[in-house]
């Protein structure tokens, strides 16, 4: 009987603690959302700062009225552009940093890059330097040979632009065709 008297006060106490402290939970959620917004704002400022550093890059050329007959065409993805030889130095000026779908057309006049939802541009044949297969460009790394990298001259800057075809078996034909447009590639090796 004495053990029952000892257990009776324990049974009368509250059985569990309050599970939810709504004020604290709401405070943490608001704090987390503010932190995420702050990090996003910092990333956006960094992107804008990089664009202002690259403001000396001339405007992108547009395709001529009659570019000629297409040698090759390809649909796929544009993964961005970097300073040639520096695969992590992304170029964001003039929309070159924005990833998008792409339709490439190689003609005798040059390389036409049509990007729905982003800035289209044209690389004149005289500005094409080389094409190669590589595994990565800023923000995108694939298996060896998974990216078509086209190096071209824009003003005083050599630029590497990365593309991936919907059918990657097309990449070697593109490397061959672009390199054939620049005689220094076949006789002296790649121009860098």
What does this protein look like?
The chain is α+β, with helices and mostly antiparallel strands and 192 residues long. The protein has 4 helices and 9 strands, in the order ααβββββββββαα. It has helices spanning 2-12, 22-53, 171-180, 183-188, and strands at 70-83, 100-107, 110-114, 121-124, 128-134, 136-137, 140-141, 147-154, 157-165. The longest helix has 32 residues, at 22-53. Residues 186-192 have low confidence and may be disordered.
Low-confidence stretches: 186-192
Q: Which bin fits the share of residues in helices?
A: 25-40%
Terminal-residue CA separation: 96 Å
Describe the main β-sheet briefly.
7 strands, antiparallel
| Principal-axis shape | elongated
Helix/strand structural class: alpha+beta
On the 0-100 scale, what is the average pLDDT?
84
The neighbouring-strand order within the major sheet is 4-3-2-1-9-8-5
**N-to-C SSE series?**
HHEEEEEEEEEHH
Summed up, the helix count is: 4
Properties at a glance:
192 residues, alpha+beta, seven-stranded antiparallel β-sheet, 4 helices, 31% helix, disordered C terminus
List strands and helices in order, with pairings.
Elements: H1 2-12, H2 22-53, E1 70-83, E2 100-107, E3 110-114, E4 121-124, E5 128-134, E6 136-137, E7 140-141, E8 147-154, E9 157-165, H3 171-180, H4 183-188
Antiparallel strand pairs: 1-2, 1-9, 2-3, 3-4, 5-8, 6-7, 8-9
């Amino acid at each position: 009987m004495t053990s029952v008297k000892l257990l009776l006060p324990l049974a009368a106490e509250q059985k569990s603690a309050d599970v939810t402290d709504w004020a604290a939970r709401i405070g943490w959620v608001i704090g987390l959302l503010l932190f995420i917004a702050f990090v996003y704002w910092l990333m956006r400022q960094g992107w804008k700062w990089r664009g202002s550093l690259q403001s000396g890059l001339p405007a992108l050329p547009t395709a001529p009225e009659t570019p000629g007959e297409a040698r090759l065409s390809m649909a796929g993805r544009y993964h961005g552009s970097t300073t040639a030889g520096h695969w992590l130095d992304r170029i964001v000026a003039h929309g070159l940093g924005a990833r998008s779908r792409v339709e490439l057309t190689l003609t005798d006049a040059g390389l036409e890059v049509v990007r729905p939802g982003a800035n289209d541009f044209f690389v004149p044949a005289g500005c094409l330097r080389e094409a190669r297969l590589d595994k990565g460009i800023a923000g995108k790394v694939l298996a060896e040979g998974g990216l078509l990298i086209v190096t071209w001259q824009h003003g005083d800057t050599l630029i590497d632009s990365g593309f991936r075809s919907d059918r990657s078996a097309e990449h070697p034909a593109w490397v061959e065709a672009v390199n054939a447009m620049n005689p220094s590639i076949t006789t002296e090796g790649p121009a860098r």
